[in-house]
Structure formats: C-alpha cells, structure tokens
Design brief:
The complex is a heterodimer of chains A (275) and B (204). Chain A has 275 residues and is mostly helical. Chain A has helices at residues 8-28, 33-60, 63-84, 92-115, 124-155, 157-167, 170-195, 203-210, 215-248, 265-274; strands at 88-89, 257-258. Chain A has two domains: 1-60, no CATH class; 61-274, no CATH class. Chain A has a two-stranded antiparallel sheet with strand order 1-2. Chain A is globular. Chain B is built from six helices and nine strands; from the N terminus they run E-E-E-H-E-E-H-E-H-H-H-E-H-E-E. In chain B, the strands form two sheets. Chain B has a five-stranded parallel sheet, sandwiched between helices. The longest helix of chain B is centred in the last third of the chain and has 15 residues, at 137-151. By secondary structure, chain B is α/β, with parallel strands linked by helices. In chain B, strand 7, helix 6 (167-178) and strand 8 (183-187) form a beta-alpha-beta unit. Classes of the chains: A mainly alpha (275), B alpha/beta (204). Chains A and B meet through helix 6 of A and helix 2 and strand 6 of B.
C-alpha cells in the first residue's frame, strides 16, 4: 500500500487550525503574525521547489550528480555551521567540510551498502535522503560542540593556561575540552534513544508508516537511523574540532580567533565609535 | 636562569612594559611587586609563552623563548596562576589527571607523599574529596602549591600563592619556597616575604 496522496486544496483546511493562533497572538500582543505568515508561505514555496528538484534528481538518478548534490549540501552545512558558531576560527570552512564529509560518507556507506545492500549505493532515493537526514543532525551537534569547546577555552583562559602549564601538552590539555564537547552532543542523544517509542515516535518512522510501510519494517529502519545518527554526530564533532584546532591555536598553543564583525548595522557602528 | 631584555608590551594604547629587563640567577627567589594593572601577571604569561611581547626577548636557561623552544621551556617551569584555576571535579581527580600527563609519569604521586605534603601545608586528606570549585581560595592555592612541589620542576612561577592565607600558613609556604633550592619567581603583595633575607625584591 502506498501513501495516500494529499489534495493541495485540502492543505487550505489545515490553515483553519492556525486562525486561532493568529487571533491569540494578537490578544497576547505577540507580534509575530506577519513573520509567521511569511514563514509558512516561504516553507510551502521552498518545499514545492525542493520536491520538484528531488523528483528531477530521482528521475535522472546519475551517481555523479547525486554525489555533487550531497557535496553542495555539505558546503551549505559548513557555511551554516560557521555562521552559527559563536567563535570564528581561521579557515575553518575546510575543517568543517571534511569534518562533515568523512563521517557522513562512511556512515552512508555502512547504511546503503552493509545494511540495505543496495546494488547502487549512490541511488538518489537513498543517498540524498540518508545524507540529508544525517547531515542535518550532525550540523546541529557540530555547532553545539564547537561552541562548547572554543567558548570554554576562551571564557576561562586562566584555567586553560593552568592546565597547559601542568601538562605542557596541548593535546593532553584539550582532552577535557573534547570530553565536554562530546558530552554536549551525547547526553541529549542518550535521552532521546532511551525514550524512543515510549514517549516519541520519530518523524521518519511516522512518515514511513503513513507511507504504507509495515510498523515492524519502519522500526528496523528507525533503529538503524538512530545508530547512524549517533555515530555521525559523534564523529562529525570530533573530526571538525580536531581539524579546526590545527589552525585555531598558534605555535605557543594560544587560541587565536578571528574577530567576528557585529551585524548591528548603524547602531553597532556608533557604539564602536563611542566605545 | 631567567634573562629578560628590553621587553615591551602594549595593550591597545596603554604601555605596560617599555624596555624592561630582569635577570634571575639559578636557585634565586625573587618577589615581584607592582601596583595592579602594571603587568605582573602579564610578565608571568610572557615567561610561559601565553602572551607574546611586542619587543625584547626572554631567555630561560640560556634558551631564547620562541615557537620552537616554548614547549621545552614550559617543561622546566611550574606555573601556578593567580586563582590557581583548576578544571571541574574533586581535588583528587585533578591530582590524578595531572599525574596522568605524560610529562609527569615518572613522578612519585603516591598516597603517602601526597598525604605528607598536605600535612606540611596544614591540609587534611579530606580536602581531596571536595569539588575544586567549592574549595576556599586559600586551600586551593595551597593545594596548587602541593602540586608544584610534587612536580619538582626547575623553575617555580607563583602568582599570589600566599594570598588569602593567615601569617602562619604564609610562612609554611614561604619557608618551603626559600628552602627548596629551585629558581622561584613570586608575584606577591604580601609583606611577610620581607622577613626573608635571601629573597630579592623587585618593584616597578
């Protein structure tokens, strides 16, 4: 049984659900109605375009095009991570790109080759869907891990210097910082995995079941996905931190950060002049 | 042992050091004094290579401090910072972590040795089970000093190591410093150091 197609007109009924949200927002003085309406419209346009584009890629199903598309996704993820991080490390784009690409590619190989035993591991339906999901998850973890790692060194420089002087080794000093960055990504995942199925039914599994897949098959996929996400998050954080740290510290082991220009426009500029 | 020549350092437009020179002989204990904001901690940071001067040079044991020598030089120095900042965990976990560093593997971190040193500085073993961030400033500094004694490096660089201690405990620490035979650079505002004739005082 395939998924029941949705009539686009029926989507309009869904908007009825949002009418009270807009009314209540107005009552509570939450001035987000315009933004919310734009966001919904934007999401609809984006998703339609992505749907058309994916349909085209699936019909074309060329391995090189698929790999190229995944690489573009990774580049966008790297730029997005750079923008979201509180600290800016010199030339961190390539560190992030490799940090995303290597673990994601290895986990994708495990998933498509070992688990699904696909004749073509670069099949658009699988590589784009799997990589998209893994990449989205690793992006989130990398930003959290990156911020935890570098801001804790930057904010408590005395402690970093103290441990550096006791160990005389950057590698050994950073071990504790790696540990904390990995914990930031690991702890929420443990909580999610523990409650999976009891408290939450993940979106992917729900989507599969709605699409007509037997629950027991959907569950197998979901378990594999959770393990893949766990691995890709962990190794993306570790790889991107390690690679970025090669350039983040000078020869004296001191953290050197690029100054991030504040995007405060004229207000920020005037403050800077006064400061 | 420590030779600083023509050192210059500026923070934004503020001159901290200008043509500053200092020589400290091997085995000497020197107390550095200066008003707040005059660069005492910056000087310690520059000796450790945490901060680079704008001009001048620093030599430790005849070796000029630069990117190639900084690691070898750091291995000779035990630096205890102003707040003796330590990572999270209990004092015992911190000592275990310090003992696990490859440079410290050959050092005797036995329970007996740690216990003896704790007692020498009026600390009990109970302090080892306290979380580092809950230990009082005075206890933390003495604990850091115990670490410094355990490591036994050639040069001790101690920033306000006696701050927050009563006179008796200050003397326990200072007695050990002046009798240790190491080259010791102390940053301190304490007058108790004046009672020790072998200590050289440098002010600016």
């Amino acid at each position: 049984m395939g998924a029941i197609d949705i009539n686009p007109i029926v989507f309009l009924y869904f908007l009825i659900l949002l009418v009270p949200v807009f009314i209540l927002n107005r009552y509570f003085g939450i001035r987000k109605n315009v933004k919310l309406a734009i966001a919904i419209g934007r999401m609809a346009v984006q998703m339609v375009l992505v749907g058309l584009f994916l349909q085209y890629l699936f019909d074309l199903n060329n391995a090189w095009v698929n790999i190229g598309y995944v690489l573009v996704m990774m580049c966008v993820a790297s730029f997005s991570a750079m923008r979201s991080c509180k600290v800016r490390i010199r030339r961190s784009f390539f560190a992030l790109l490799i940090g995303f690409a290597v673990p994601n590619f290895i986990v994708m190989l495990f998933f498509n080759y070992l688990l699904l035993n696909l004749p073509d591991i670069f099949d658009a339906r699988y590589i784009i869907a799997v990589q998209g999901m893994l990449l989205g998850n690793s992006l989130n973890s990398v930003v959290l891990g990156y911020n935890q790692f570098y801001t804790s060194i930057q904010d408590d420089q005395k402690r970093y210097f103290q441990m550096l002087s006791l160990s005389c080794s950057r590698r050994e000093t950073l071990k504790g910082y790696y540990k904390n960055a990995l914990l930031v990504t690991l702890n929420p995942q443990i909580a999610t995995i523990e409650t999976l199925g009891l408290v939450t039914l993940p979106g992917m599994m729900t989507g599969q079941i709605l699409g007509g897949t037997q629950p027991i098959i959907a569950i197998k996929y979901q378990i594999a996905i959770m393990l893949a996400i766990l691995a890709v998050r962990y190794f993306s954080v570790l790889a991107s931190l390690w690679l970025s740290s090669l350039r983040a510290f000078d020869e004296y082991d001191v953290l050197t950060l690029e100054r991030r220009a504040k995007r405060n426009g004229a207000k920020g500029f005037l403050q800077k002049l006064r400061g | 042992m420590i030779k600083i020549s023509g050192l210059g350092l500026k923070f934004k437009d503020k001159t901290i050091f200008e043509n500053f020179s200092l020589r400290i002989a091997e085995g000497e204990t020197v107390v550095l004094r200066a008003p707040s904001g005059k660069g005492k901690t910056s000087l310690a940071y520059m000796i450790m290579g945490f901060l680079r001067p704008d001009s001048g040079k620093i030599e430790i044991g005849g070796e000029e401090l630069n990117g190639a020598t900084v690691h070898a030089i750091r291995r000779r120095i035990c630096y205890i910072g102003q707040d003796a900042s330590m990572p999270g965990g209990t004092a015992r976990e911190i000592i275990d972590e310090v003992a696990s560093f490859s440079i410290n593997k050959h050092i005797d971190f036995s329970k007996e040795r740690i216990k003896d040193l704790l007692e020498a500085f009026s600390l009990t073993e109970a302090v080892l089970d306290k979380q580092a961030d809950t230990i009082s400033g005075g206890e933390r500094r003495r604990l850091a000093f115990v670490l410094c004694v355990l490591l036994g490096r050639d040069i001790w660089l101690l920033d306000e190591i006696t701050a927050g201690l009563d006179d008796e405990r200050k003397r326990q620490v200072i007695d050990h410093v002046v009798g240790c035979g190491k080259t010791v650079v102390v940053i301190s505002h304490d007058d108790v150091w004046n009672e020790y004739e072998s200590v050289r005082h440098i002010s600016w």
